[in-house]
């Protein structure tokens, strides 16, 4: 998977992620360079969803992508401005007004329905 996991407009770019396993059938990615940020790719390459764990192996983020490889929905468990105190992890989700990272909506507290639907991915939480 290329830089931040993207197709890079059809250009070949160095791999930035590696798959380290699966949770509930969803690929778990981590940066090849562990000093890099543990964020998910802005575009999907080979799957319609990915998970990233933090450096200790605890769930950090889940993201879904559409058929054009752009993000449409994500769940996070980390500090989120306006929803948690500094340094405190909180479950929240983002919906996208249109596919693509530039269209990510404001963080919302996770609902019981969303938690129930995705709870198998929340490793270590």
Top keywords for this entry?
seven-stranded mixed beta sheet, about 5% helix, about 120 residues, 7 strands
Return the average pLDDT rounded to an integer: 86
Given helix and strand content, the structural type is mainly beta
Q: How do the SSEs run, as a string of H and E?
A: EEEEEEEH
Shape: globular
Strand order of the largest sheet: 1-2-3-4-5-6-7
- E-strand count: 7
Biggest sheet layout: 7 strands, mixed
Portion in beta strands:
25-35%
Radius of gyration: 14 Å
Number of helices: 1
Would you kindly provide a written description of the structure presented here, covering whatever features stand out?
With 125 residues, this protein is mainly beta. Helix content is 6%, strand content 33%. It is built from 1 helix and 7 strands. The chain has a 7-stranded mixed β-sheet, with no helix packed on it. It starts with 16 loop residues before the first strand and ends in a 7-residue tail after the last helix. The N terminus is likely disordered.
Describe the structure concisely.
The protein has about 120 residues and is mainly beta.
Which secondary structure elements does this structure contain, and how are they paired or packed?
Elements: E1 17-23, E2 26-31, E3 49-53, E4 59-65, E5 71-78, E6 90-95, E7 108-109, H1 112-118
């Amino acid at each position: 998977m290329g830089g931040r996991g993207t197709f890079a407009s059809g250009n070949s770019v160095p791999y930035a992620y590696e798959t380290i396993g699966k949770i509930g059938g969803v690929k778990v990615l981590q940066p090849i360079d562990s000093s890099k940020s543990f964020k998910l790719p802005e575009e999907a390459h080979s799957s319609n969803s990915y998970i990233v764990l933090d450096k200790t192996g605890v769930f950090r983020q889940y993201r879904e992508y559409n058929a054009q490889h752009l993000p449409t929905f994500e769940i996070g468990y980390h500090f989120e401005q306006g929803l948690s105190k500094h340094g405190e992890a909180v479950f929240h989700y983002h919906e996208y007004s249109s596919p693509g990272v530039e269209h990510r909506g404001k963080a919302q507290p996770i609902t019981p329905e969303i938690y129930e639907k995705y709870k198998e991915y929340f490793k270590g939480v």
